[in-house]
TrEMBL record:
Pfam families: 2OG-FeII_Oxy, DIOX_N
Protein family per UniProt: Belongs to the iron/ascorbate-dependent oxidoreductase family.
Cofactor dependence: L-ascorbate
Protein known as: Fe2OG dioxygenase domain-containing protein
Source species taxonomy: Eukaryota, Viridiplantae, Streptophyta, Embryophyta, Tracheophyta
GO biological process: defense response to oomycetes
Length: 350
């Protein structure tokens, strides 16, 4: 573990007081963002309109999803059914949370990734060798009544606004899982059934302005451990996706979400849909806020390639089956790395 050069727990509490970042945040030259090499094109990530998902055009939308999932692993959605006001309130209250005094934010501080509500910094502060320019609040949010008592009470509207947002996001995720299931040629409820009572977590990522964004990351390149991730972000760019051997920056569009395939979906789809590398970079000028909602299987759910895909395609299972909790423990026992966590779950070929 790297120790911070400052006595502050959170990067937002010293970021504006320095002109050079502490050495604990500086990446080796071979592992820097190389921002001048990044392709900037918001158009390269497909934008899918879900307005007619339950109308006569469903098959066409499912087809667009199939294409986006198999070629990008990332797409944006509009007319997704989450009200604009729900989104605006969520962004506002999240920003208010991070603008509170240090004493209020650090009340929730913990370095223990198993805690179901916590504020922390970097990715996994107990394992990161180089730190990341990010603070975050992470919560569990399904079933809401099991966790809401742990959530922050300041700002005063935090619980109410977050509960409304999380409920709306859960409904959206269920619609997406059905459509993605169909896009793989599976029954609508196939993926949902595999997952058991799926868990839902949220992160509120806060990236303060950084005096030397070329030397560090908000989050380094990684693949999500999820089934799918549905990301809300403010209007400040920072997310980049690895596509055709290049980093591509994703331009924020108001009231759209970015959806990406996570490792569990890669396994279920038997590699038809890939969990794609992505990262968050920081900038000198503006703070950035992003709010990913993570869909996970139940801990005891057994994840494996869908049988139908293996027999239909006459292809071998790429992965063995495993209880989700086995993957989860492996994921949190390490720092965020570009190496896929899935290598340990490959089917043996001998
Ligand atoms: C994540 C993530 C990207 C972003 O939290 O897993 O990839 O833009 N975030 O903050
Ligand atoms: Ni991610």
């Amino acid at each position: 573990m790297a120790t911070s050069a400052t006595s502050k727990l959170l990067v937002s509490d010293f970021a504006s007081t320095i002109s050079h970042i502490p050495s604990s945040y500086v990446r080796p030259i071979s592992d820097r963002p190389n921002l001048s090499d990044v392709a900037s094109s918001g158009d390269s990530i497909p934008l899918i309109d879900l307005r007619d998902l339950y109308g006569p055009n469903r098959a066409a939308i499912v087809h667009q999803l199939a294409k986006a999932c198999s070629t990008y692993g990332f797409f944006q959605i509009k007319n997704h059914g989450v009200p604009d006001t729900t989104i605006e309130k969520m962004i506002t209250v999240a920003r208010e949370f991070f603008h509170q005094p240090e004493s209020e934010r650090v009340k929730h501080y913990s370095a223990d990734p198993t805690k179901t509500t916590r504020v922390s910094t970097s990715f996994n502060i107990s394992a990161d060798k180089i730190l990341n320019w990010r603070d975050f609040l992470r919560i569990h949010c399904f079933p809401i009544e099991d966790f809401i008592q742990e959530w922050p009470t300041s700002p005063v509207s935090f619980r109410e606004v977050t509960a409304e947002y999380a409920t709306s996001l859960r409904a959206l995720i269920l619609r997406l899982l059905e459509a993605i299931s169909e896009s793989l040629g599976l029954e609508r409820d196939h993926i949902s059934n595999i997952l058991g009572q799926h868990a839902q977590h949220m992160a509120f990522n806060y990236y303060p302005p950084c005096p030397e964004p070329e030397l560090t990351y908000g989050l380094p390149g990684h693949k999500d451990p999820t089934v799918i991730t549905v990301l809300l972000q403010d209007q400040v760019s920072g997310l980049q996706v690895f596509k055709d051997d290049k980093w591509v920056s994703v331009k924020p569009i108001p009231n759209t979400f970015i959806v990406n395939i996570g490792d569990q979906m890669q396994v279920i789809s038997n590699d038809k849909y890939k969990s794609v590398l992505h990262r968050a970079i920081v900038n000198t000028e503006k703070e950035r806020l992003s709010i990913p909602t993570f869909c996970f299987p139940a801990a005891e759910a057994v994840i494996s390639p869908a049988h139908e895909l293996i027999s239909k395609q006459d292809s071998l299972a790429v992965y063995r089956s495993f209880p989700f909790v086995e993957y989860w423990d492996k994921f949190w026992n390490r720092s965020l790395a570009t190496a896929s966590c899935l290598d340990a779950f490959k089917a043996s070929t001998t």
